[in-house]
Amino acid sequence: MTIEELEAKLAETTSKLETTTAKLEETTKHSREWENRAKANKAKADELEQLKTDHATAIKELDELKAYKTQTETAAARATLAKQISDETGVPADLLAGDDEESMRDYASKLDQYAHPKPQGLPNQGSQPNGTANVGDLKAKETINRMFDNL
Q1: Whole-number Å distance between alpha carbons of 79 and 76
Q2: Out of 65, 84, 91, 118, which could bridge 108 as a Cys pair, Cβ 3.0 to 4.6 Å?
Q3: What is the pLDDT of residues 93-133, one digit of tens each?
């Protein structure tokens, strides 16, 4: 091989090296752009996941608040009904059991019967005596008659 051939070969190799170096730099630049895009996408994906988590938490809190509101409204309605029944029956509202008007009224009636029992009457009330009074002593008989004659 001659010097001219070597120089030609060197020039060709140098040209290929420059071309390859330029392609490598372009590819590296392109790779860096995609790397930056990937990092940006990763940050956006992380942000999206955080937003999804925040959304799920907000939905859970909203459901809890709705349940609390419903529970509070139910308790308020029950308290109003209990006060109304208490005013009508005289049984304190905090002693009433039940969640609807019928059960509260039944319980108020039972409490009222327990607290203020109705008289049952005498065991032989309304019947006639089946014998005569045993007053063996005549003096006692006369004393009793005199007692009732003065009335």
Answers
A1: 5
A2: 91
A3: 988 898 899 999 999 988 888 887 776 666 666 666 565 55
Other beta carbons less than 10 A from residue 105's beta carbon: 17
**Domain encompassing residue 47:** 3-115
The DSSP letter of residue 93 is G
Q: How far apart are CA 4 and CA 27, in angstroms?
A: 34
**138 with 144: CB under 8 angstroms?**
no
Which residues, at least 6 apart from 96, have a Cβ–Cβ distance to it below 8 Å?
Answer: 82, 85, 86, 104, 107, 108
H or E segment to which residue 71 belongs: helix 3-89
Domain annotation covers residue 143: no
Domain count for the chain: 1
Residues 6+ apart with CB under 8 A from 18: none
